[in-house]
Write a structure and sequence with these properties.
Chain lengths: 67, 508
C-alpha cells in the first residue's frame, strides 16, 4: 500500500508531468490503437497459421528471385 | 520483378521513424549521466543549489523521455508489417537481445524512474542518488541490446542459416553479444549521446548567461556540462577510431564510400576536406574530387593500424584485385546464385523425400553460403552504397565532432578563469551548437545505415529481399501518418522545453 501511495502522491504532485502524461496518453492511443490495429498488422501472423507455412513462404521468396 | 517503389517507400518510412526516434534518444543517454553527476555533487556537498540544478535538468530530461517514449516501438511495428521476410529470417537472433531490452526498460522505468521523479524527500538522499544512477546506467544498457542487434546486421556472426526454417539461428550468444562491431558501435553511439547531453546543458546554460538569468546555477551547470563534454568528446574520438577500424575490417565498401576512395592502394591518406566530382561514375577515369585536402597515411593507419596497409577502393571491390586477393563482385554474384539454386534444390528434394539429393544440395549450399546475398544482386556495381550521401555525412559528422571538442575546451577554459560571461561569441556559438549536435548524431546513423546498403544483413540479405509484399499506397499512407505524428511530437517537445527553460531554474 505504501508503494501504491508513493505512486499516487507522485502523480498528484507533478507540475509539468501532467501535460506530459496527456501527451503520452494521446501518443499511446495513436501508436497502439490506431496505427498498430489499423495500419500495422503482423504480415506473417495475418497470412499464415503456423511456422511451417511461414518458413515455406520465406523459402519460396528466397529461392524464387522473381518476387 | 522487385517492386522498387515499395522498397524505396519502405526504406523511407523506416528512415523517417529512425531519424525521429534518434531526436529523443541521445539526450536521454547523455542527460541521464549529467543529472546523476549533478546529484552526486549535491549529495557530496549538501549544497541545496545543486539540488535545484539537478531538479531543473531532471525536468528537461523527463520531458524528453516522456515525449520520446515508445517512438522506437514503431520500428518494431514496421519490422512485423513492412519487413516481414527480414523479421522472420532474423527472429531467432534478435529475439533474445530485444526481449532483454524490453524487460530491462520496463523494470527500470516502472521502478527507478518513479523513485527518481517522485522520491525527492520520500527516500534517503543516497537511495535517490542510487536510483538516478541506475536510470542512467539502465538507459545506456537498453541501448546496448539494440546495438547488439544492429551490430549483428553489420557483421553477422554467431549464427547458422537453417535451410528448413529459413532462419538464421544463433549458435553462440556470446559471439553475438561480444561482436566487435556491436561493441564499437555501442560505445560510439552512447558517446555521441553524452556529447549531445553536454551540448544541451552547455547551450542552455549559455543562453541563461547571455540573458543574465540564473547566472550562478548556469555557471555551475556549464562547468559540469563542458567537463563531461570534453571527456566524452575524447572518448568519442577513440570509439570512432575503433568503429572505423571495424568498418575497415568487415565493411570495405562502406569505408570506400565514406572516403570517396575509387582506386585503392597502399599507404592511403584520409580526406580531411573535399568536394566529390558530381560527374564521376564507377569505372570511368574522371577524377573523384573537385578538390580535396588529404592527411597522408591516415586512412591506412586508422583503418588497419599500419601506415602501409592496403585499402581497397570502389573499383577493386567491384572489379577485383587478384594481387590483394580481392574477388570481383561478379564472381560473388555467380556463387550467390549457386547458393540460391542449391537451396531451392534442397527444398524441393526435401519435399520429395529425396534425402540423397537434399544432402548433396546442402553441401553445395554451405560451400557458397557466404555469398548467398550476392545472388540477389543484378549488377556488380550494386555492392557500393550511395557514395555522396555516405561521404558527406561522414565528413560532416567528423567536422562537427571536432568543433564540439573545441567548444567544450574553450567554454571550460573561460569558465575556469572566470571570464565566460564576457565571451558572448562563444556563448552564442554554444547555443547554436545544440541543433548541430542532433545533426551530427543523425549523420552518424546515415553513415552506418546508408553505408550498409544494399544490405539489410551485410552480404547475406539485400534490402530488396527483406520487404513484405504490401501495396505502395499502404506504405505511403503510413509514411505521411508518421511524418505528421512525429513532427507534432517534436513540436510539443520543443514547445514544452522552451517554456520550462524560459521559466528559469527555480521551482522544478
Amino acid at each position: 500500500m505504501k508503494i501504491l501511495q508513493f505512486y499516487i502522491d507522485g502523480f498528484r504532485d507533478m507540475k509539468v508531468g501532467k501535460s506530459l502524461w496527456i501527451i503520452i496518453g494521446i501518443k499511446f492511443v495513436i501508436f497502439f490503437v490506431i496505427m498498430k490495429t489499423l495500419f500495422f498488422p503482423n504480415f506473417m501472423k495475418e497470412n499464415f497459421s503456423n511456422d511451417t507455412e511461414r518458413a515455406n513462404y520465406v523459402l519460396q521468396i528466397l529461392t524464387n528471385k522473381e518476387k | 520483378m522487385e517492386n522498387i517503389a515499395l522498397i524505396d517507400w519502405s526504406r523511407a518510412q523506416f528512415a523517417l521513424t529512425a531519424i525521429y526516434h534518434w531526436f529523443f534518444v541521445p539526450l536521454t543517454l547523455g542527460l541521464s549521466f549529467i543529472v546523476a553527476i549533478m546529484e552526486s555533487i549535491y549529495v557530496k556537498t549538501g549544497n541545496v543549489v545543486w539540488k535545484e540544478i539537478t531538479k531543473f535538468w531532471m525536468t528537461l530530461f523527463a520531458i524528453n523521455f516522456a515525449i520520446g517514449l515508445a517512438t522506437g516501438i514503431i520500428m518494431e511495428f514496421e519490422f512485423g508489417t513492412n519487413w516481414s521476410n527480414y523479421s522472420w529470417i532474423v527472429g531467432d537472433i534478435f529475439g533474445a537481445p530485444l526481449a532483454i531490452e524490453g524487460i530491462m526498460a520496463f523494470f527500470m522505468e516502472s521502478t527507478f524512474f518513479a523513485v527518481m521523479f517522485f522520491g525527492w524527500d520520500k527516500v534517503s538522499k543516497e537511495m535517490h542518488l542510487f536510483s538516478t544512477w541506475l536510470v542512467a546506467i539502465g538507459s545506456n544498457l537498453s541501448a546496448l541490446w539494440i546495438l547488439v542487434a544492429n551490430g549483428w546486421m553489420q557483421n553477422p556472426i554467431g549464427m547458422v542459416f537453417n535451410p528448413d526454417t529459413a532462419r538464421f539461428e544463433m549458435n553462440s550468444f556470446f559471439d553475438v553479444l561480444f561482436n566487435p562491431n556491436a561493441y564499437s558501435k555501442f560505445l560510439h553511439t552512447i558517446g555521441s549521446g553524452y556529447v549531445m547531453g553536454s551540448l544541451f546543458v552547455v547551450g542552455i546554460s549559455a543562453w541563461y548567461l547571455l540573458k543574465n538569468k540564473d547566472v550562478v546555477k548556469a555557471k555551475k551547470s556549464i562547468v559540469v556540462g563542458a567537463t563531461f563534454g570534453l571527456i566524452t568528446s575524447i572518448f568519442l574520438i577513440f570509439t570512432g577510431d575503433e568503429s572505423a577500424h571495424e568498418v575497415a575490417l568487415n565493411q570495405p565498401s562502406k569505408l570506400a564510400a565514406m572516403e570517396g576512395l575509387y582506386d585503392g592502394h597502399r599507404d592511403v591518406g584520409i580526406v580531411a576536406i573535399g568536394m566529390l566530382n558530381p560527374e564521376k561514375q564507377i569505372g570511368d577515369k574522371k577524377e573523384p574530387f573537385v578538390f580535396e585536402i588529404t592527411v597522408p597515411h591516415a586512412l591506412s593507419l586508422l583503418g588497419f593500424h599500419d601506415t602501409d596497409a592496403y585499402v581497397p577502393g570502389i573499383n577493386q571491390l567491384i572489379y577485383g584485385d587478384p594481387k590483394e586477393g580481392i574477388e570481383p563482385a561478379s564472381d560473388k554474384i555467380e556463387k550467390g546464385k549457386i547458393a540460391i539454386s542449391a537451396l531451392k534444390e534442397y527444398k524441393e528434394a526435401k519435399k520429395a523425400d529425396d534425402n540423397a539429393t537434399a544432402q548433396k544440395s546442402l553441401v553445395e549450399f554451405r560451400a557458397n553460403e557466404k555469398y548467398f546475398g550476392y545472388g540477389y544482386l543484378k549488377d556488380a556495381k550494386d555492392i557500393i552504397p550511395p557514395v555522396a550521401l555516405t561521404f558527406y555525412s561522414f565528413h560532416l559528422m567528423v567536422g562537427l565532432g571536432t568543433w564540439f571538442l573545441a567548444l567544450f575546451f574553450f567554454v571550460l577554459y573561460f569558465a575556469m578563469v572566470g571570464k565566460l560571461d564576457k565571451q558572448k561569441l562563444i556563448l552564442r556559438l554554444a547555443v547554436l551548437s545544440i541543433p548541430l549536435g542532433y545533426l551530427a548524431g543523425e549523420m552518424g546513423w546515415i553513415v552506418a545505415e546508408v553505408g550498409r546498403q544494399p544490405w539489410a544483413i551485410f552480404e547475406m540479405l539485400p534490402v530488396g529481399m527483406a520487404t513484405s509484399q504490401l501495396s505502395v499506397i499502404a506504405v505511403q499512407t503510413t509514411f505521411w501518418l508518421f511524418a505528421v505524428t512525429f513532427t507534432a511530437l517534436l513540436i510539443a517537445e520543443i514547445k514544452i522545453m522552451i517554456t520550462q527553460i524560459k521559466n528559469g531554474m527555480e521551482e522544478h
